[in-house]
Amino acid sequence: MNKFIQFMEQKFIPVANKISRIKALQAVSGGSMSLLGVIMVGAIFSVLTSITWAPYQNFLKATQLLTIINYVPNVTTNLIGLFMAFSIAYNGAKVYGIEKNAFNTGVISLVAFILLAPITAQQQGMLSTNMFDAAYFGPKAVISAIIVSLIVIQIMKFFMNKNITIKMPEGVPPMVSNSFTSLIPAVVIVLVFGLVKYGFSVTHFKTFNDFIYTIIQTPLQSLVGSFPAFILLLVIAQLLWFFGIHGSQTVLPILIPVWLGYMSENTASLAAGHGIVHTINFGLWDLACIGGCGATIGLVIMMFFTAKSERYKAFGKITFPCGIFSVNEPLIFGLPLMLNVMTIIPFIVCPIVVSSVGYLLMKLHIIAPYVGILGTGSLPPFIHGMVNGSVSAGIYELVAVVLSCIIWYPFFKMLDKQALEEENRIKEEKAND
């Protein structure tokens, strides 16, 4: 074990630290997380239409609520690429040190992203109407939105750092001044992406989005959409947590762009009356992290109800309510689970077992898969499943709590026994004094 820890500290952790400090990943992660409100609203309204109970569906149709509810996903999750084009550039400008121009960077990125989308003309008598295809702003455009945002940030950063801007006199309101400051890079950006649009229009791909979706996004979805890849990334995240590095923040930025697309496609499929398209999504990751990374809800329950040592009795009162809402930093750094060789086995094995059993039950159609809504991981077991549109998966989450308790129990009793013996020894020493 000492050799393993030494190897990880020398080879693995430095690489992980470098990855977590990559500004592009920070921009993507921050931009995606900023859209939680929009994402959750759209996903929840999609779930509302997916409840297949006949009287409920008849009520929605009779009252026209079904039509009203369906408005929301169409302008939220179904346009997620559009929102990400702004959000990633806006947050990324802060990460790259041009925060004064963050808003303008976001807006220009949005313009560049829309510019790349094809415009079709619909003839109506003597009139011609220009139209955008919403598919080019939705889940299939997420990777394109990320690429456009990161390029726009770099161009803006270059012009800002080189001071190639239009300077307004003092006394001009900041918003006006910033707009003129961004004018030169904005002109360059739209020209660049105009050329990109024209360049792809003469290829068989026709659009930049179609090129990215065909060459990058589809293969990437196939890669991270496999269960072995899911388990591998889960183990990497757990190992990072073991060494005190936020594993989820390191791994999830790789998955967020693809899984956001999964979430949108799942909600759209449900709204159309079909089943879940992608079983591996944010919901399954939340299941693996039930109670927090390491599926530690069983540990906090065992600690709260069965601890005999004063140390863990007191600690259990603090960590139990946190664990219910999947906040386990107190366990990571307070127990600690970090660099604790006595708990590394359940810390890695428990999330694998919990998610593997859940995935197997989903593939056997015993429980319904999650929609996979980003940001619901802090909800308590069962409620998390309900919000993700799967009552049966919510019920399994209660089973997963029991599994976590079983896996963590012998390891916690070992810790508790050691702590109790230490406390008794200290009491005996004080009594002898």
Q: How would you describe what is shown here?
A:
α2 crosses α6 (80-95), α8 runs antiparallel to α10 (183-201) and α15 packs across α20. This protein has helices at 2-20, 23-33, 36-50, 54-62, 65-75, 80-95, 102-116, 142-161, 174-181, 183-201, 208-224, 227-242, 247-271, 282-288, 297-306, 310-324, 329-334, 344-363, 383-387, 391-432, and strands spanning 119-124, 127-132. It is mainly alpha-helical and 433 residues long. The relative contact order is 0.10. The two termini are 39 Å apart.
What oligomerization state is this entry in?
A: single chain
Strand order within the widest sheet?
1-2
Shape: globular
Q: Report Rg.
A: 25 Å
Span of the ends, CA to CA = 39 Å
**Averaging pLDDT over every residue, what do you get?**
84
Strand content: under 5%
Sequence stretches where pLDDT stays below 50 over 5 or more residues: none
Largest sheet: 2 strands, antiparallel
- Percent of residues in helical segments? over 70%
What class, by secondary structure content?
mainly alpha
